[in-house]
Amino acid sequence: MESESNVRDDPLNTHDSELQGSSSGFEDSTGTKSEINELKNATLNDKNEESKTIDNSKALRKFLASGFKAMKEARSVKGKQHKKSFDVSNLSPQSYATVNFIDPSTPSDETEDSSSPQKFSFLGSKGPSGEANVALDLYEKLTRIFERDYQSTLRSVPYEHLRTGAAGSIERLPIKTILSQSHGTSASGDGGIPWGGTPGSFASVSDPAEWHNGSYCHVYIAACETVDQYRSKVRPTLQAFISQIEGSAALSSSRSISQNKNAQSSSNYSAHYVIVYVPIREGKDADAVSAEKDSKEGINRLGGAIASSVAKVRRAAAAANREISSDSFHSTDSGELESDDFSAIPPPGPITHSSKTEKEIFKKFTSDFPNGKICILSTLMDSIDDSSVASTSPLKNQEWNGFLHMLGAAVVNGFRDRCRRYDAELRRLDAARANGNKKPGKNTGSKAMFDLGHFFLVKESLAFTFEQMQLPAEALLQYEELRMFLPQTSGDDSPVRETEEEKKKRIRKAAKRQSDDFDDVATTLAITGDTIGFRKRLRSVTDIGIVEQTVLQYLYSRESSLLFQMKAPVELLHRSYLFVQIMYKMKASGLGIIETKTLTDEEKVQRKVDAEHWALNFCWDVKCASDKYFTMLQLSEEQRVHGFSLGRPDNEDGYSDEDDEEAENCHTDPKIEAIEKRMATKVGELLEFARLRYLCLGDIQDSFDNPIRHVSNNVPSDLMKEWKPWVAEEDGSEIEKMENISPKSKLAAASEKINLLDGVFVSEFAYETRYLQIAGIVARCNRLAGRRRLASRFQTQMAEIYTYRGDYNAATKALLPIVDVCATDGWDRCHFWHLFRLACCQRKTGKIPAYLNTLTLCFGSHLEGMAPRAAAEALQRDFEAVISHPQVSQLRLGISSFLETDLTIEQTSGGKSSMLLNFVRKKLLKSFCKVGESVKIKLTVRSYLPNAISAAKISILLVSFAKYEELFHNRELVSVDDAFANIQLDSSPTIEPGDNTYEFKWTPMSTGTFTLSTVQMKWNQGCFHYDSAVLRKPLLAIDVLPSDPTQTIELNPLFLIPGHVQEVRITFNAGSDIIKEGTVEFVCSDGLQVVPPGTDPAKGQWIETFSIDLPPCDADGISVLSTSVRSRLIEPADQKVMHLMNNGSSSPANVQALQARVVTSYRHKSYSASNDPNLNEIPCMKSTLEAMVTTLDKPAFTVDECRTYKCAEDKLLVTILLHCNTPVPFSIKEWAMEIPGLEVVLDGDMNQELFGYPISEGEQLSLAFTCSSTTGKEEGDPFLKIVLQDEFGKTFNQVLPLDLYFFYDQMRKDKEFAGASNIDAELTCGDSEGLVGAPVTFNLKIDATNVLTRKDETKILLLYQLISDDTDWIIGGQAMGILDCSSKKKYDIEFVGIPTCPGIVKLFPTLSIQYGTSEDDSAPITVHLRNPDFFTSLSFVNHMALACPVDLE
């Protein structure tokens, strides 16, 4: 086995060769006496040991810094995969699991000499000379591939948690391979080993404290070519190997569970193995036959030994399993990770591609060795090049995956067995402590005394095992349990129950065996976490209680190393805080160290000082080491500390452009930021403990009184002096450059070189300076952790120290962040106190802008009841003095808390509306008004000053919305030059304490949206700007709409008559508006044309559109324009088309129209360019006026109805109903009617009274004429010709067609039928009254004697039908039928009628008779029906009914 001295490559491990030696030489828990003495003498006699020992403080800092740096690097490359070769020399023994390999094909070092007659040979392998002496070196090939392609690491190894039984997975498990040589039956082999291996090649360490150095499992590489070779050579050798490891494991288990008085420490043997079957695919020759013969002879020699060994193994294993299952705390986890049947199942992939012989050999492996795991690597004999396994062939990749899976399962099973043995051993060692830690004697028997040192080593060995399996959390738990066994931690400072005298003798005896030099070396080893060296020193300690401080230091280092692996920096800092408290108490009280004499008072004080020194340096070392991990702590803190100031110039109080750029470029992960905040909390706690230790050192030293105590316990000296009026001074400079007030980015690197206690006790100033550095870093850590109140407490103390020293600039820097914290947390009284102290410092620095900013913050709503009257008045006097300084005029002062403003807009004509303004993320309240409307704005100013002030000017800046948005996106402030309007008060107001109300009036002359962006208050040399975007109130705006134009236009006439030329006149009236310019445009539709004004219509220059400029005019100005227009005559055919389209089509006919449009640019009547020159730039408002005159879509008059009535035997009455369609009244001057076939008789015109009568739109005029027939021609269309006259006397001719189609058709029928057919009928009712719904019998008598017939007709058939309205009668029976009048002329018909409503019924069914032929020219039939006078229909009065019970069921 390799020595552990070469495993750890640590620069801190620079001890002598003995300290670097392997610990495997200690076979028992305490070692032999001669070995311990030699170790002590070698240490004490080394003259150069002290020079080689590294400073403990530097060693601790370097150890922790390397861990934090590694965690930060791992965090930065998270998610990236880095494949690098596995180098075991760079890892500690706790970083990997060891696996023992047995490869008979690899020759040992003893057989490398060619002269050896027993050099190992293998079947089928020949050298150049033909001899079978070529080694296969399968182990070298396997490990080369394992290291190159898999980085000697197993991935995702499944395992079962030992305590909870939960299934888990080990993500990454590094493996160290060691080779145990095998020589067959060579003389160099161990005769006690049946299979002839090298002695101790796989044997474990007998000391339980070194079990972690043993292997977890075995891998046997079995190369085989034929079945005969397997039977004769491979199987016997494997049986001997497996018998030995199983027998050793069973014997180890039986010893570990033995509880008799002779029980000894058991060995660490693993019974888990993996057999790697490598097929040999070469031909067999004579040498192979000879080798088979030799192997058969070997079987005869080994047969008896194998049989007896297997029997012993089985008996011992059965007994061990029974006893372990009843005693071990692992009894619930009796099964292994995988079942034993798994090894017997051949892999489904690789073996299927093998030959028949290989499959048979593999089957024999699985049947002969069922307890192991069998896999095949048939491709291992292939050539090994630089290509990886995955890129060569799928078969090779599949074989290796199976091998690695089985290897991981074997390692986990070996790990479980080892934990069982640890449990049994720890129970045995703890039995003495359970018996009362009594010394062995007559009364206690021969039980062993509890050895805490040996128990420590065994328990840590178990922790090493967990760490090797990459389970750092479980390893950490072992160290936590181990700490509880230490005397001072557990409360038991003695390993045995003893008297005080026995305790003193034990301490003196132990002190003789120790030395200060040895203790220093052990302390260095403990600090650096050197497990090998420290465990060697611990073996020589007889009483661990006298070196408990060193042991605690070692435990802290080991726990820190595990926490580094777990990536738990917060927990590491927390444990560091707990560790320093425990160690400080022990060092201050002298516990856990060697004291050979009673200390004097001076020595006790010195011990106290040393403890303070150690604690202070430890906290500082942890802080410096943690800087390697931080990202936030490396940024400049200036913006976080001083970023609240308002109106302070750039680069004030330590600002720099580099810090701003660094802060902007830093983008941290939120998870990392949360971790670092928690770490900052822990670092702050550590440094707070260091600060207290530093104060204690200041109290102990006698060079001077502790100045920090003086400042903390007394009233500030500057408050005991008179408050003098403020006088402007030059900008003061700092007395001392203190770069650690708020540490900058380079402090983390510089802090590593700082020794906190160098020269601090030379003077009070040096002591204060170092204290300010420590307190500043504590404040910074707490501020980064979000603990602002705690940080403010430290900075308050720092500010008072600076004030005491007269460094007011530094005091200002310390107080600024405190003011921020108090303002946001609502500490009103504390807020005023710190503001007052800040003002006390700033009034002496000469920095006027900074002091003015502080004075504005000293007054506000939250401080109104907190500030004393005298202090408030003193600050206001300084305020008035500072605001009068000329330097203030160069500053743009923003919103100040001493004044509050509130803007409101009174109700306007357009009302209000609200909307969300996205770019400012505020609510916008808009008030709507019109141009020329007076808007009232009310400003309420609330003053929190104790006395009144006189303001020079108060104004409101109105900015157009577009300009305001532009300024906001450009991050520019609103200035007077950007304002559209600047509304001011007429006089200089006086602002009294409390509420002050001022009213502003504004009359807008232009349209647009204007925001009330800023309220300006001019006070002496200062001008305060209250920007609405910053205030937590809705943004106010005024939306100015155009004023209603008072302009009018009039277009005459109101309509156009088709077919005529008319004059059109447009009259424009400006009203109260001021017209700057305008245009008049005429647009004609289809069928209309105009001539430009001033053009003679007779010349024919007709156009469809034209425009002309409108001259400017003032208010009440009038302009008149005239032109001529003509329209096309609407023909009767057009009327018919229009009628059809208006009634049946989907779109109406186009209407002829003349449209006049007047577009003007105008201003309100209140506009006056002479009052304000800026008004000339105001754009004009636009107005569009339109008027339209249409051509009548119908003629002026239309005929609604034309009818004829027979008034005498040879005369007709013709009536014509005219409808007026004109918008204005017209009268008829003349009319004339032409009807072919008729003429008006003398005095037949009955319309003489209608001449000159005005007819309005929609009215009807009825004309009547008495006419007689003429003998002239009847050709032509009838029409009515009228002459219309308007109110101006102009006449229009109109011809109206008359529709007399039915008249002419009836005349034709009358001529064809000489006479008319008449039928007489009489209807009689059987009863004169009856009930509603009761049937009534009717009798109808028909007389058809006067029916005329045509000459060509021989048979007369008449169709009759009785028709009744359902509301009166419901009829049935012979309601309709046929009458044959050829032979019979009279008929009697009966039918039934039912009345439907009560009352007197005077309506009866009617009779309709017509010819039965289908010709339309049949002679009409006139029916004369006589009905009864009336019928009385009665309603129901009562109703008789019979009631009977109904069965409910």
Task: Indicate the radius of gyration in whole angstroms.
Answer: 61 Å
List low-pLDDT spans: 1-54, 81-86, 110-134, 183-204, 259-265, 283-311, 316-348, 493-497, 635-666, 732-753, 1132-1149
The total count of strands amounts to 46
Helical fraction equals 25-40%
Secondary-structure-based class equals alpha+beta
Could you tell me how far the N terminus lies from the C terminus, measured between alpha carbons in angstroms?
Answer: 106 Å
Task: Tell the overall outline.
Answer: elongated
Describe the structure.
This protein has 1449 residues and is α+β, with helices and mostly antiparallel strands. The chain has 33 helices and 46 strands. The strands form eleven sheets. Strands 8, 9, 12, 13, 16, 17 and 18 form a seven-stranded mixed sheet that branches. It starts with 32 loop residues before the first helix and ends in a 15-residue tail after the last strand. The relative contact order is 0.04.
